[in-house]
Amino acid sequence: MTQTFIPGKDAALEDSIARFQQKLSDLGFQIEEASWLNPVPNVWSVHIRDKECALCFTNGKGATKKAALASALGEYFERLSTNYFFADFWLGETIANGPFVHYPNEKWFPLTENDDVPEGLLDDRLRAFYDPENELTGSMLIDLQSGNEDRGICGLPFTRQSDNQTVYIPMNIIGNLYVSNGMSAGNTRNEARVQGLSEVFERYVKNRIIAESISLPEIPADVLARYPAVVEAIETLEAEGFPIFAYDGSLGGQYPVICVVLFNPANGTCFASFGAHPDFGVALERTVTELLQGRGLKDLDVFTPPTFDDEEVAEHTNLETHFIDSSGLISWDLFKQDADYPFVDWNFSGTTEEEFATLMAIFKKEDKEVYIADYEHLGVYACRIIVPGMSDIYPAEDLWLANNSMGSHLRETILSLPGSEWEKEDYLNLIEQLDEEGFDDFTRVRELLVWRPGRITVGTPCVSVN
Predict the structure, then answer these.
(1) Residue 332: which of 305, 311, 314 has the closest Cα?
(2) Which residues contact 435 (CB under 8 A, 6 or more apart)?
(3) Bridge partners (DSSP) listed for residue 159
(4) pLDDT band at 423 (very low <50, low <70, confident <90, very high)
(5) How far is CA 88 from CA 83, 148, 190, in A?
(6) Neighbouring C-alpha atoms within 13 Å toward the C-beta of 101
(7) Which of 124, 136, 171, 208 has its CA nearest to residue 384?
(8) What secondary structure, in 3-state letters, does 336-352 show?
(9) How large is the C-alpha radius of gyration of the chain?
(10) Residue ranges per domain, the chain?
């Protein structure tokens, strides 16, 4: 069998695909390749899902069909290992009171009488970051999946990389502030960790560039020419009428980040894609394949025009939109000829072990602590990486202003309504309570309950993999 090795991976694509598919089959999953896209040469993307549980799906991208499939399967293990497929749902009383909710090594911290955050959770640095004004209470940190106040706060163990000490971080904080950022799976520990750290840099630098309206230097043509497959993809897009601009997003060689912008002259809109990896060529390829992941050429008319309103661009809601689907606003300043940083022909590549050390050195230089949770219970290495102050998708104040478990105390009441004999006044009182507690009028009932309607058979892999 042909063996295909690509930079950044510690195994041949064929071996990765065969291993991941076999592991998923052994776990009881029936994975199907639901859709493929190859809109331009050297850009592939695939959507895979479990036949029995449509909630369990991932997308993959790559310069070849095999690379895209390996990417999707790796992401599937990433999300299985971190329980992310069901991160937005209450899992019910049986799981909430079972031997464990998330992992066997989780630790529960009972609520205190004065509702302080219990000792043993977080370290001093994390407490100062998440709760600088001492506004956080223990009851705010009940995890959404269990909703079990009687059991207390569920803390997951992370290894603090500066001294290899174990720190317990509430699942509530992980789910509210970090969502899927910093999660990764791979052929080896170092490969996956490099990918997870690269993702943290990608989104941190992307947010800085967008929020601060930073002007980036273009990548010179002679540098792009080193990567003919990428150039062919770009030239094909331009021949189809979409001007492409490739930028060095390293901010003067500090970070391994690339930015590629696609313009649609038909409606004056643009779309900025970002990618990161210690290897310049890998980062560039990822940025271009990300540009078209899940999109055909006919799907490139749904973005927004650049704007001169830098305040609107910097708003957190706009950055959140960029995190979700990259369709947010971009400042015209990004495209100024006079860039804020010089072009740097950077390259941090090496073995995956060397690349991990290089990326960790950048965090150390920034005085940022890195916390990593390792997961190998499914037979494939995966991790979740948290870098407070860099990998946060949502601000810490969301823990008390927009916590995802804010409606959990209403679950029993609302679920009992179909069989209740309430009077009109009772319903009015409930509406008044919802108003007083600040719930958005447009919040769906299922979102308030963090509940998935429809039939999911208990015992299917997507429910029982833990």
Answers:
(1) 305
(2) none
(3) 166, 372
(4) confident
(5) 10, 15, 29
(6) 28
(7) 171
(8) CCCCCCCCCCCCCCCCH
(9) 23
(10) 216-350, 408-449
Residue closest to 370 by CA, chosen among 126, 153, 87, 118: 126
Residue 201 CB partners (closer than 8 Å, separation 6+): 255, 256, 257, 276, 359, 362, 390
Are 59 and 37 a contacting pair, CB within 8 Å? no
Interacting residues of 372 by C-beta distance below 8 A, sequence separation 6+: 158, 159, 161, 193, 196, 383, 384, 385, 386
What's the rounded mean pLDDT across residues 199-223? Answer: 98
Mean pLDDT of the chain: 94
Hey, CA dihedral for 185, 187, 188, 192, is it positive or negative? negative
**Residues 283 and 277: beta-carbon distance below 8 Å:** yes
SS (HEC) of 15-50: HHHHHHHHHHHHCCCCEEEEEEEEEECCEEEEEEEE
Residue type, 187: N
Higher pLDDT, residue 430 or 42: 42
> Which residue is listed with tokens 């009428």?
241
Nearest C-alpha neighbor of 279 from the set 357, 362, 349:
349
- Contacts of residue 413, defined as CB under 8 A and 6 or more positions apart, other chains included, come to 430
216-350: CATH number: 3.30.160
- Residues 6 or more apart whose Cβ sits within 8 Å of residue 136: 117, 130, 399, 400
Report how far residue 162's alpha carbon sits from residue 165's, in angstroms, rounded to the nearest whole number. 8
pLDDT value at residue 443: 75
Order the strands of the 31-40 sheet from edge to edge.
31-40, 43-50, 53-62
- Measured in residues, the chain has a length of 466
Cα distances from 40 to residues 63, 112, 258, 295, 301, in angstroms, run 10, 58, 20, 11, 17
Q: Which helix (H) or strand (E) holds 245?
A: strand 244-248
The confidence score (pLDDT) of residue 18 equals 98
d(CA 44, CA 66): 9
Distance CA(330)–CA(453), nearest Å, equals: 37
CA separation for the pair 457, 207 (Å, rounded):
40
Q: Are strands 107-109 and 153-160 parallel, antiparallel or unpaired?
A: antiparallel
Phi, psi of 156, rounded to the nearest 5 degrees: -105, 140
The one-letter code for the residue type at 304 is T
Beta-carbon contacts of residue 325 (< 8 Å; ≥ 6 apart)? none
Strand partners, 155: 107, 170
